[in-house]
Design goal:
The strands form two sheets. Strands 1, 3, 4, 7, 8 and 9 form a six-stranded mixed sheet that branches. Strands 2-6-5 form a three-stranded antiparallel sheet, with no helix packed on it. The protein is globular and about 40 Å long. It has no helices and nine strands. The mean pLDDT is 83. It is an all-beta fold.
Length: 107
């Protein structure tokens, strides 16, 4: 359901990895990346996407298992906020994953 059952706060200013399915086009090979079609928001604020693609591990899972790395802005307030990741493939419509809870601690 997109919600952690045991929240571990991440420091503001750090990077997180989100794993998902269905946001990137099929056929990615491990290590393939394309950030041009992916956006992310933390607490309703657009944040930098540093990697969007097929992780290098485990092998043979790139078609159903994708990774997106984003930075949590250093001025993000401590406490509970939200993360949402969206993708707009060329010629396609914008698709967003579920909004998930993200717990941030002061950096």
């Amino acid at each position: 359901d997109g919600t952690s059952t045991s929240p571990i706060p991440v420091p503001a200013g750090s990077y997180i990895q989100a794993y998902m399915t269905g946001l990137l086009p099929p056929g990615l090979q491990p290590g393939d990346t394309d950030t041009s079609m992916v956006t992310a928001q933390i607490g309703g604020r657009e944040v930098q996407v540093y990697f969007a693609g097929a992780p290098d591990y485990p092998k043979n899972t790139a078609d159903w298992y994708q990774q997106v790395n984003v930075a949590i802005p250093s001025d993000t307030p401590a406490g509970k906020t939200t993360l949402v990741i969206c993708s707009t493939p060329p010629g396609g419509s914008k698709v967003c994953g579920p909004t998930v809870d993200l717990y941030v601690k002061a950096s």
